[in-house]
Amino acid sequence: MAEHRSMQRAALLDAARSLLSEGGTEALTFPALAERTGLARSSVYEYFRSRAAVVEELCEVDFPVWAAEVEAAMAAVDGAEAKTEAYVRAQLALVGDRRHRAVVAISASELDAGAREKIRAAHGGLVAMIVDALRDMGHVEPRLAAMLVQGVVDSAVRRIELDVEEPPVVAEATVSMVLRGVRG
């Protein structure tokens, strides 16, 4: 029974990722989840109390995997500048990943305070990955610099999601901004 529930929950999360990736917040409804998984709508409520609860669990499940990919990219290179570039490029490469799209599809304002805090803590862990590299690059306030770098990355993510410029163009501009500032 527990294995069946676990499989149903995983199927619901996978359906939620697809719905969010395909249609954003509006697409994530309990009737749509029920249709995608073959469950009765009332059964979906046995697993999740709200859309926000679905997104919170997606964040809990997917964010550590995403962070591990960024960390692995940084570990694969040597030197502070190369690690900083890997940090930026790995995050931007994940923009097309439906796990990422699902996590950002619903704004934090739709989540309860506990969920927002979990997401904030997860992002804090991501930002912490780059602090040492920035310190090694000579930043006097490496934690502040890390937060600013993440702000630039977050802006680049939004730009890629708008689908105006090609992702490689956004990635190059972002790496240049982070490593060399506005002078390019």
Question: What would your notes on this structure say?
Answer:
The model has no long low-confidence stretch (mean pLDDT 87). The chain is mainly α. Helix 2 crosses helix 3. The longest helix is centred in the middle third of the chain and has 25 residues.
Quick summary:
By secondary structure, this protein is mostly helical. It has 9 helices and no strands.
Q: Features of this protein?
A:
single chain; 184 residues; mainly alpha; 78% helix
Calculate the mean pLDDT score and round it: 87
The total of beta strands comes to: 0
Oligomerization status of the protein chains: single chain
| CA-based shape | elongated
- Summarize the biggest pleated sheet: none
Helix content: over 70%
Quote the distance from N terminus to C terminus: 58 Å
Number of helices, counting only DSSP H or I runs of 4 residues or more = 9
What's the alpha carbon Rg, rounded to whole Å?
18 Å
Secondary-structure-based class equals: mainly alpha
Order of helices and strands: HHHHHHHHH
Strand content: under 5%
Low-confidence stretches: none
